[in-house]
Amino acid sequence: MLLLDAAVHLFACVNKNLLMLRRVSKCLLMPLLASCYMLFAREPSSYVIAAILFGFAGDLILLFRPRKWAFPAGILAFAAGHAFYIVSFIRRFSVTPPWYMLAIFGGIILASAATLLRYLWKGLPKKLRPPSFLYMMIIGTMASCAVLFSFYSVSAHRWLSAVGGLLFIASDTMLSIDAFHHPIRHRSILVMSTYIAAQVLIVSALAFN
Question: How many domains is the chain partitioned into structurally?
Fold first, then answer.
């Protein structure tokens, strides 16, 4: 059902006349993913379920754009979801990563967030600049934990988390550029395909750990 809904949603993203179908199918994505996780996970975690449900909340809230409250509220919901993913990854490390790896990833996160913020600076409303930078740091931390999980976990499917984390960053970066810098052609299909893949890969890595 999840794959079918994802296919329907991406088809609706291509066709502008299927707005209602796109909205309905989008709202079904995360509940279906949560159902699959609870069905197939060896030991379902409340942290992972919370991360998925906050993703659902973010999806739902962003349907209300361009209302002013929608974007910051969506950021808050997705940030909470990332925080739960971060906890989920850290709890599953088989060994603690060495300090220099943490320092390297910390530097990459800070530099990447600062670079993207500078790129979006002129088009980003002043009130959104601090929370946007904070969100960039949070999603960067989540993606870094996903990559570290692929190195410091015993799961046979750990590599899925690294790909998923990077795809999540790609999806949100495209969404931000389209919203605050310049329009991106085929934005809907690009953003949603990478977003769906990211969520599925991350959850799969955590489910079969």
Answer: 1
- Rounded to whole angstroms, the Cα distance separating 133 from 129 reads 6
Within a domain: residue 149?
Answer: yes
What own/partner pairs with CB < 8 Å and gap ≥ 24 does 43-48 have?
Answer: 45/88, 45/91, 45/206, 47/84, 47/85, 47/87, 47/88, 47/91, 48/84, 48/85, 48/88, 48/203, 48/206, 48/207
Whole-number Å distance between alpha carbons of 58 and 41: 23
Q: What is the pLDDT of residues 78-133, one digit of tens each?
A: 999 999 999 999 999 988 999 999 999 999 999 999 999 999 999 999 999 999 99
Cβ-proximal residues to 125 (8 Å cutoff; 6+ apart), any chain:
none
